[in-house]
Amino acid sequence: MRLAPPVRRGQTARFALLILLAGLSLRVVRLDFGEALPYLAHPDEPTQYDAAMRILRTGDPNPHFFAYPSLCLYASTAVLGLGALAMRWTGEIGSLAELGSIEVEQVGIGIVPHPGLLLLGRFLSALMGILGVALLMLLVRELCTSEWAPLLAGLALALSPEHIRLSHYMTVDVTAATIALAALVVCASALRTGSGRRLLWAAALAGLSASAKYNYGVALAAVAVTALLLEGGARQKIARIAWAGAVFAGAFLLTSPFVLLDYPAAWAAISTEMKHYAAGDIGVPGSSTLWYLAWLWRGEPAALLLGLAGFAIAMRRRPARFAPVAVFVLSFAFLIAKQKFHVPRAALPLLVLLIGGAALAVEAAVEGARRRPGDRRALPVLLGGLLTAGILLPGLANLPDLLLLHGPSARARAQAWFDRALESPEAKGALDRSSPGAVKILAEGYTVFLRPETTDVTYRKTVSDFPLVAYAQHGYDLIVLGSGIMDRFTAQPEIFEWRAARYHEYFDRLAVVRDFTSPRDPLQFGDDDPAVHVFVLTDRGRRFVEAADRAAAAAGGGAAPDHSG
């Protein structure tokens, strides 16, 4: 006896459409969040924006940038080109030659010359993100028997905090993950229908995913497994693999041609990037495997546990159909586990597929409860509801922070404080590097943008390379620290003992601090509790801070909190 009427296909389509519309809304809301354009929010956005601007400006299709392949930047060039033509039509620019690149001073610090174009690039990421939601529903549909499990997977991904956040940036990760997901969907479809033609489409999509981000080339392994599982003799299987490899290479080279045409420059860039991933980044230590497991556990524990269970269930129930997914997951997980550089966006496709696996696990649990003997009609509903709640809870808990109106981020508030100082004759005089008494500023990554041409500012990725006394001896008046770098070390004092001690020294020894803080914003890059701190070392620096406070108060922004040591 059924507990409820079955979900009909027409209803499934309507529910799926509602999920996609809701997911798209969450991905386009506040595309100008956090860092308050025109200032940079994500350190990787210039890689796509600047290459697209260079192509539009010069007409040269060679991106002269190969840390990433070219599919995403060519797509960005097309979208931003339409925006640039609209700017030219409205008279905002006279010609495409006027298009500028992002002026970057340090990691995460820069200014965007055409913020509207950056928003177009972010909107493209949002569209690719919601396409990924649709594709996950299709993949789960290939691996399950119910009509509701794909809807659960789609809803969970539509609400996924990390997927929403990454869909707000003009970067390659969401696009690469979405195209790889499309390849897996077509692999599953090829196995269901026995279609060799669909296998070639899967190979093309795998090549495009590699053309979005090199390491997504492991999708070719999923295609190869599909070729082996399709019916036919050994010679036919080998021929299919050969054709799939050729199609994969063709799709990659068609969309990233200068990796081959400009091979020396491309290989130099790729080698540098491989060394970076192998060596890791400053302040990001430890095992990548444990780091990614901890990240998944903190963010979406039910998706991690149920997703792994769902993988095992799918491998038992439909081993041939699930094999391409399993091979992709194992290959991709092995690849990122071998790298010392670990960031959430690198594991995005694993998160997406775990969410799909979690939906399969819930379906299996409900079916198992229904088969239990006795009159237990409420058990499937209760069990399914509890497991579904566990999967959806992180996304639902994230919605208030995501949707409620936010003020400027800590970085944006600190930036506004300096910008108002530059607009004030009194404070600007103290900042003007041509003035004999100009304040000398040291700033680290993820803080504020100041032009070295007009202000006496020195940027370092981290100020902890040298002790405070060394900076004082070099005549710095102000030091600007940001939680985006500082927290890497202070949160792990057992690993970075001397670096953490140097940061604590600022708070313990300096007399005056200007603190800029803001509540958690789930769209913010990198910081859970963002903050920027301005430390004063000299009387000249103190006089500038007082003048900057007066300028901020006159502009209606108020002064930053004063914490005297």
Written account of the structure:
- The chain is of the alpha/beta class and 565 residues long.
- The chain has helices spanning 9-28, 45-58, 71-90, 115-143, 148-159, 161-166, 173-193, 196-212, 219-229, 234-255, 258-261, 263-279, 288-299, 301-317, 319-337, 348-370, 378-403, 410-423, 425-431, 468-473, 483-490, 497-509, 539-554, and strands at 103-106, 109-111, 440-444, 456-460, 478-482, 512-517, 531-536, 562-564.
- It has a six-stranded mixed β-sheet with strand order 4-3-5-7-6-8.
- Strand 1 (103-106) and strand 2 form a beta hairpin.
- It is globular, with a radius of gyration of 26 Å.
- Mean pLDDT is 91; it is low at 1-5.
The total beta strand count reads 8
**What is the overall pLDDT average?**
91
| Approximate strand percentage | 5-15%
Query: Major sheet, described briefly?
Result: 6 strands, mixed
Gross morphology: globular
- Helicity, in percent? 55-70%
Structural class: alpha/beta
What's the N-to-C terminus distance? Answer: 72 Å
- Contiguous runs where pLDDT drops below 50 for at least 5 residues: 1-5
Q: What is the count of DSSP helices, taking H or I runs of 4+ residues?
A: 23
Radius of gyration: 26 Å
**Spatial order of the strands in the main sheet?**
4-3-5-7-6-8
Q: Keyphrases for this structure?
A:
two-stranded antiparallel ribbon; single chain; 23 helices; 565 residues; 63% helix; alpha/beta; disordered N terminus; six-stranded mixed β-sheet
